[in-house]
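Supplementary notes for students who missed Thursday's class. We covered one full example, reproduced here. Read the sequence, then the structure, then the short commentary at the end.
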Amino acid sequence: MSAANFAAIAGLRIAVVERSEHVGGTAAFTAGTTWVPGTHRAEEIGAVDTRAEALAFLDASIGSHSPTHPRACGRDSSTSAPKR
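Structure (token representation):
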């Protein structure tokens, strides 16, 4: 959606096609939120995800639909997110 939005802002004609049977796809079920495990904010409310738990969840959710390397890299970068 972000890419379509920025393309439209740039003056391009776009078409968004929903693959899911629900308008909004999986975002409709998440209220637009993003899960980022292992952050200091999660720890503040007592939600502690280990690296192994996060990767196991992603592997089970995504399966063989994408390579595992980007998941591990993304997880590594979330642990160094700046505290505000």
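Commentary. Helices lie at 2-9, 27-30, 40-44, 51-62, 69-79. The CA atoms of residues 8 and 64 lie 33 Å apart. If anything here is unclear, bring it to office hours.
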